[in-house]
# Entry
Amino acid sequence: MEAGIQQRPGLVLSPRCPVAQPRGPLGGVMGRAGLPGKLAGTARSARRCQKLFQALLPPWLPGAAAGRTLRLGQHRGAGGASQGRAMLTFMASDSEEEVCDERTSLMSAESPPPRCCQEARQGLEDRESAAQWFQNTRARHRRAHHGGVPWPSPSGFPQRSQDSEEDLDEDADRYMCSGVPGQPSGLEEELTLKYGAKHVIMLFVPVTLCMVVVVATIKSVRFYTEKNGQLIYTPFTEDTPSVGQRLLNSVLNTLIMISVIVAMTIFLVVLYKYRCYKFIHGWLIMSSLMLLFLFTYIYLGEVLKTYNVAMDYPTLFLTVWNFGAVGMVCIHWKGPLVLQQAYLIMISALMALVFIKYLPEWSAWVILGAISVYDLVAVLCPKGPLRMLVETAQERNEPIFPALIYSSAMVWTVGMAKLDPSSQGALQLPYDPEMEEDSYDSFGEPSYPEVFEPPLPGYPGDELEEEEERGVKLGLGDFIFYSVLVGKAAATGSGDWNTTLACFVAILIGLCLTLLLLAVFKKALPALPISITFGLIFYFSTDNLVRPFMDTLASHQLYI
Amino acid sequence: MTAAVFFGCAFIAFGPALALYIFTIATEPLRVIFLIIGAFFWLVSLLFSSLFWFMARTITDNKDGPIQKYLLILGVLVSVLIQEMFRFVYYKLLKKASEGLKTINPDETAPSMRLLAYVSGLGFGIMSGVFAFVNTLSDSLGPGTVGIHGDSPQFFLNSAFMTLVIILLHVFWGIIFFDGCEKKKWSSLLVVLLTHLLVSALTFISPHYGINLVSTYLIMVLMGIWAFFVAGGSCRSLKLCLLCQDKDFLLFNQRSR
# Structure
């Protein structure tokens, strides 16, 4: 029965009150991770996912690596190594499997969940779920969100703090080892797949929306394609006479930017380790204030200028004030889910527009590549600050500050505690506003939803089943970098829509693949590398190869 | 040109595809994913075709003259071949994925191969149409006069109709192609390839829009009828459907509501 109570939406913490939360999310999640019967199901589903993956694997991939992944369900230790190996092989990373076997490192670092000790070991496997990489992406977002904004803020907000704040979140997210509560055997597999496609679409829609907003702005508002200086994080100019010099400058810019990001991350981890929660919380608030008010004001000003619409200052003040205030409330406290999602998409788009405007061309591409490599390395290697952050958060059983995560679904639960038959109808809570906050927990949530936790043995008469549907969570940094890629393609593609569309499709496919890998490996995976790699490949090849071909065809009116 | 031209041509070219998407694909997430993967496969085939053409041009040192025209024609034909090849590759991938899905999820029915044929054809078609037409569409919003140098003033309309027919043809080709693969009827594959080559070759006589378009539409109608029968339709079922007497369909609709 304890377990039953744990099963309750430990979903978790409300991101809006990150500081004062009870052990909820992490404890809850771990608690959920636990009925022994469910773990077997997990193993079986993992095996079947492996089979699906193998069905799709090209034959030339190391058969050994593929074969070893089958052991995932059976023996965690070896499975971990094989997983790590398979993942490394698949990801073409060149880190040593022994060194970067995050599974073993995660296992050793994890403290067993407080209540389900016997399931702890098996539960670990469950815990590394798809959610983890969502966590990662979140982490990344945070980092990206702050890392690259040397915006000369008139209010003098410490830029660094914002960065570290975001980095903290990102890092925490990245290494989250959220447990997937065990499901009854067989059920989990179905649920995984049944909800897998739905959740891919739940991510496609916001990513598409963000990209559409960015591309529409880039194509219509000329302000964001004009060169008006650079960020202080990219001090080297690209207006050099020779190509070699330009390349060198862009690489240097990238190095500076990435090191700033890494420094922020480490700073955040340090802050988190020393429990400076108020500081971090304050940063989060300051950064969203800046985004929601200052950047919105600038954006609105430029849009009005482009369409030659006059607006007096009182109206402008009222509009921006309302927009910003509602945004702050929605993001940091309570609000309708759709509104919160819309605000998160808007601030990601605004951030991406800032990047597109202030990053010089070559630097932007190199930075995109470098950040996906960094993401890959930071997620897969056990020594990263992000991992430490997550482990620390796990040890303390706390949620990581969830400010910048996009959550896509509502969470509802049916209470399990009451056995009163007369209240059973009432217990079918359609929507518990409290629960909604849980969906924002950035920490410890499996990425794919859990549905159906059957009544526990302690409640034989309980007909109600605890049902939770979690949404998929994706960090805002991923939104931002995807939009930067597509926006840059739109801005510099010489007016060509084909390049933009090709990058868009490539990013969606990368996201799809990442989710598939996630379902197969059940391990923390970064969301950036595959999508950004595909995006970059398609950008350069479409711009240089496909565009001349299609232009020539169009000029002769040939159709292929 | 005007907004009327823009919206008109946009809806002519993409209206049916959008309707097909909204009514048949948008409701099921798995179908959307397969559609996007299909679009991706077409994109990759285009990439390879462009690479081939680019290499051929580099080998001939970019000389102007008739050689460029021949290279272009060759490029188009090779592109058609590569597209059909990627359709086959996509078929193989879907086959493997179906089997994988079945082993994982024996209770829930995975989408049937026919449905996947339709979805993949639509994916190919949408991507092909968009790539062919979207730059022209965006130009139609800007200033200009069509046909000022003696070209046909119906350029936008013709392009829009051509795009539409290409999208629909891809859908039908997808259905026929997959069915041929399933039943190992290689003649179907050959016919699909040949009609695709024929349609592309017809565009070589592009200034004569009339012949070009009309014959392509004829081919589209023929392909459509063939695809209808291949997909399991029959005259009887068509009659029932048109007279709203198809009980299975009505029941199905009721159930899903």
Summary: The CA atoms of residues 129 and 362 of chain A lie 36 Å apart. The mean pLDDT of chain A is 66.
